[in-house]
Write a structure and sequence with these properties.
The chain is an alpha/beta fold. The chain has 13 helices and 22 strands. The strands form four sheets. Strands 4, 5, 11, 12, 14, 15, 21 and 22 form an eight-stranded mixed β-sheet that branches. It has an eight-stranded mixed β-sheet with strand order 8-9-7-17-18-19-16-20, with helices on both faces. A hairpin with a 4-residue loop joins β1 and β2. α4 runs parallel beside α9. It starts with a strand and ends in an 11-residue tail after the last helix.
Length: 534
């Protein structure tokens, strides 16, 4: 008699797969499975038997391995290892019988790479940051493929954002992610350098954020400020009088206080960061595939149950079908799958059965696209070089763009104003009715501004609590999620990329603990809200 129990321990936020086996009377054996992995700086400690590898051309089996693939060496595909523990014959190298039905259903001529250790869906800044960190850490120890439908990125959230980065959050993990992001941006010219190319210039402008609060919001702003200082952010809490003295062009009517970022806040060029991350990931061995994920297949782990709930089936995915621009199909076998498809992650999750099943599997990834407008206007007499990115108490923001009197601005609409996502057309009436009046009131010099250009982009909006969803899915043993940032993805991408790498390579978060951002909070209906969402 065999039983597998997957416990969701919300008090410690630790997930462990426990194996219980009853055999020979009443004697119970209990064992925990955990993954491990040799990384690039551990190669010198490898045993002699792993000193080199050869491939038998007749059997396609590995005889010895120089740097044994971490997923073939340890858990690999979870179900295989469990079966091996009980002595059930599983031959993954030659096409196991338990995998035959999936293989046959997806067997056609492969056009590109046919297998990998980690398959990343989404090649924007998030997917590319994950690929970069994985390859930078494990080098040739991991085969990484990234699937991106639009390599021009003309509709990607990354390149359509305003590229802001701040530490002014009310959740410690968000502050930590952006602190790391700022540090990364400062050293991007070295970290993302590729031989034969000019060092990347992400044009980081550390001019700070200025978050304003009314009388009603001042106390919450001060509490957030105290947390930010505690975590390590360099910010200053300023009264209305101090704000007026420092920024004479600012109308402080209705403003009680503000928090100004002194270091590590500002804005940068999202396009440059994306291209630099992608180029570096490719130089390290990442393979990008242009196409759209259209199918996922795997198997149910029928012997695994979740304690205390009716849903008893775990899934383990094995194969992906990618439709290429030509209409041809490419089939990829993988060990781990990372969903980093931005606004479309919820839809991609349904291909894996997330939101399509019963019980807990019926709960979808609550991420969907939300359209946001960015307006660029000209005001030659506006605030000068000392202007930070200013956030009004009603959420309207603006920042300087270059040195020619141009500014970017925008505002998140109210729930009853949410625009259609069917296209990326810009509503200029929204600017006239909602944005401009706020700008002209807060900065009187903007009263005579002239519209220069505008565009719209998508937020990967988490409808549950507007915060990131990061980590393993509790019921699919080999799917990671990195989505739902609700406007913060561009500034947190490199931090989340490192976190996903740590989770895959080490089986735990080692720098910034993102367990609170896990999918389990959605299953438990336990939202994690920010108190100053912009």
């Amino acid at each position: 008699m065999k039983a597998f129990m997957y416990q969701l321990n919300r008090s410690t936020k630790i997930y462990k797969l426990n194996l219980a086996c009853k055999c020979h009377g009443e004697r119970w054996l209990r064992r925990s499975f955990s993954s491990s992995l040799w990384t690039c700086d551990q190669q010198k400690d490898l045993p002699e038997k792993y000193s080199k590898w050869q491939v038998d051309q007749k059997t396609s089996e590995y005889q010895k391995q120089q740097f044994e693939n971490p997923f073939r060496r340890t858990l690999g595909i979870l179900s295989d290892d469990i079966k091996n523990y009980f002595g059930i014959n599983v031959n993954r190298g030659t096409g196991a019988e338990d995998d035959a039905s999936s293989t046959r259903s997806l067997r056609q001529r492969n056009i590109g790479p046919s297998h990998c250790d980690v398959l990343i869906i989404g090649g924007g800044v998030m997917g590319s940051a994950i690929a970069y960190h994985l390859k930078q850490r494990a080098l040739q120890g991991l085969d990484v493929i990234v699937v991106e439908e639009d390599p021009s990125y003309k509709c990607a959230s990354t390149v359509l954002s305003v590229g802001g980065i701040r530490q002014q959050f009310s959740i410690a993990e968000n502050i930590q992610l952006s602190l790391y992001g700022s540090e990364f941006l400062r050293h991007a010219h070295k970290l993302l350098a590729v031989e034969g190319h000019d060092p990347p210039d992400v044009q980081f402008s550390p001019h700070g954020y200025l978050t304003l609060a009314s009388v009603d919001g001042a106390e919450q702003l001060h509490q957030n400020y105290q947390l930010q200082v505690e975590v390590g952010a360099k910010v200053d809490f300023m009264s209305a009088e101090r704000l007026k003295a420092k920024f004479p062009w600012l109308n402080t009517d209705g403003v009680e206080a503000g928090v100004l970022g002194l270091e590590n806040e500002g804005w940068f060029d999202p396009w440059s960061l994306l291209l630099s991350l992608r180029r570096k990931a490719v130089s390290l061995g990442t393979h990008y595939v242009e196409g759209r994920l259209t199918k996922l297949e795997g198997e149910m782990l029928d012997d695994m149950v979740v304690e205390g709930v009716s849903q008893s089936n775990f899934k383990n995915l094995r194969h992906a079908e990618v439709t290429l621009p030509s209409g041809e199909k490419q089939y990829i076998k993988f060990a781990l799958l990372v969903l980093a498809a931005g606004s479309w992650t919820g839809q991609v999750g349904r291909l894996a059965g997330i939101g399509e099943g019963t019980g807990l599997m019926g709960i979808p990834i609550p991420v969907e696209p939300r359209k946001r407008y960015v307006y660029c206007f000209h005001a030659p007499d506006g605030p000068g070089l000392d202007s930070p990115l200013v956030i009004d108490p009603n959420g309207t923001y603006f920042r300087r763009e270059g040195y020619r009197g141009l500014y970017l601005c925008g505002q998140s609409p109210q729930p009853n104003q949410e625009p259609s996502i069917q296209d990326l057309e810009v509503d200029h009436q929204f600017f006239d009715d909602e944005v401009w009046p706020t700008l002209a009131n807060r900065v009187p010099l903007f009263d005579s501004l002239k519209m220069h250009s505008s565009w719209a982009g998508y937020y990967d909006y988490n409808t549950f609590d507007q915060n990131a969803i990061v980590g393993l899915h509790p019921l699919i043993s080999n799917i990671y999620i990195a989505a739902g940032f609700s406007g913060h993805g561009i500034q947190q991408a490199v931090g989340v990329g490192r976190a996903i790498m740590e989770s895959i390579v080490y089986g735990e978060y080692r720098t910034i603990n993102l367990e609170r951002f896990g999918f389990d909070r959605i299953l438990a209906n336990d939202p994690l809200y920010e108190t100053n969402i912009v």
